[in-house]
Design goal:
This protein is of the alpha+beta class. The chain has a domain of 166 residues. It is built from two helices and twelve strands. Strands 1, 2, 3, 4, 7, 8, 9, 10, 11 and 12 form a ten-stranded mixed sheet that branches. The model has no long low-confidence stretch (mean pLDDT 84). Keywords: Coiled coil. This is Chromosome partition protein Smc.
């Protein structure tokens, strides 16, 4: 409003000046007319002497009025000059305002351009937000799916943890039990000290040396059998048979000790306290690298011309005789020393008719 009022002031002043100028022109015309009349009066004065004084008086009066008018015109002229200065000042201010308006218009155009650019960016951002919102919905759905899978995996993990815990308990129990593999120490009633525990000791057993349908393997029979419900079942010849075992040779000297011929063979079942596997290695008295020796001795098996099958076992180098055994030829399963036979057996390293040793190793 203040700016509009300032813009309207010069117009008002111009109208006022024009009005005053018009009045001044009217006054000038009036003065000219009066001057003409004055001349007419002078002529009249010259012609009408009698009326001259009256006219002079009138002229003086009019002259006085004219002076007054001239003073008024001068005052109005001064005011007009003042108004012109004011108009010039206002025109300068108007120009300044126009310059300011132009600058503000330019700034407004710049702002409009900026607003348009920002509007375009806003639309782009809105599109991006819509896209990201869609992606967010998709991600939320994916997260929900993954959470469901995670819950299933957690359930499976808990199940597996339970299984692991159970296995750990079993492993701990196994470690407390000092578990490991077992082996039979043939020819002894005890187990290697500091390495194994004695499960039980007993008698070496197997089949009759001349039975063609006999079992091939040897067993270690306990000293305290516990009979089953068929102990006294009706006797029949359609059975397998179990016999004891004797050291055997063609003289009283055998690899199993002096005077061991026809003596019964003891045995011991041993369990490792620190190892999980064992192996009997024939033709060696020492173990290979990484293995620990349980015991060594002589390789034994049945007589090669006898009809019953047998197996190779390792009889301890410090073989014992069965306590309270009878020094009689009861036969049964026979333990004889084993000799190397060259041919298909490579010689060397083996040698013809040399007795083979053996070793039981643990790991």
């Amino acid at each position: 409003m203040a700016t509009q009022e300032k813009l309207n002031e010069p117009l008002t002043l111009q109208i006022t000046v024009q009005a005053q100028t018009s009045e001044l022109q009217t006054l000038q015309i009036t003065v000219q007319a009066q001057t003409s009349e004055l001349q007419t009066l002078q002529i009249t004065v010259q012609t009408q002497t009698s009326e001259l004084q009256t006219l002079q008086t009138t002229v003086q009066t009019q002259t006085s009025e004219l002076q007054t008018l001239q003073t008024t015109v001068q005052a109005q002229t001064s005011e007009l000059q003042t108004l012109q200065i004011t108009v010039q000042t206002q025109t300068s201010e108007l120009q300044t305002l126009q310059t300011t308006v132009q600058a503000q218009t330019s700034e407004l155009q710049t702002l409009q351009t900026t607003v348009q650019a920002q509007t375009s960016e806003l639309q782009t951002l809105q599109t991006t937000v819509q896209t990201q919102t869609s992606e967010l919905h998709t991600l939320r759905a994916t997260v929900q799916t993954q959470n469901a899978k995670l819950q299933n995996q957690n359930a499976e993990l808990q199940t597996q943890n339970g299984k692991i815990s159970s296995l750990e308990q079993r492993l701990y129990q196994a470690s407390q039990d000092k578990g490991g593999a077992t082996f039979i120490r043939w020819g002894r009633i005890d187990c290697p000290a500091n390495l194994t525990d004695l499960v039980y000791s007993g008698y070496a057993g197997g089949t009759w040396y001349a039975h063609t349908g006999a079992a091939a393997n040897h067993v270690c029979l306990p000293r305290d059998p516990v009979w089953g419900p068929y102990k006294n079942m009706h006797n029949t010849d359609y059975t397998a048979l179990m016999y004891g075992a004797e050291y055997n040779a063609d003289n009283t000297a055998t690899p199993f000790g002096l005077n061991s011929h026809d003596e019964e063979v003891p045995c011991a079942v041993c369990r490792y306290t620190s190892f999980v596997s064992s192996v009997m290695i024939p033709a060696r008295t020492t173990c290979y690298s990484g293995w620990t020796k349980a015991y060594s001795g002589s390789l034994a098996a049945g007589y090669f011309i006898q009809t019953a099958a047998s197996e190779y076992v390792c009889v301890d180098e410090h073989a014992q005789l069965l306590d309270r055994g009878a020094d009689t030829n009861d036969d049964g399963t026979l333990f004889l020393a084993v000799k190397a036979q060259c041919g298909s057996l490579r010689c060397p390293p083996y040698e013809q008719d040399k007795y083979l040793s053996c070793v039981v190793c643990m790991k």
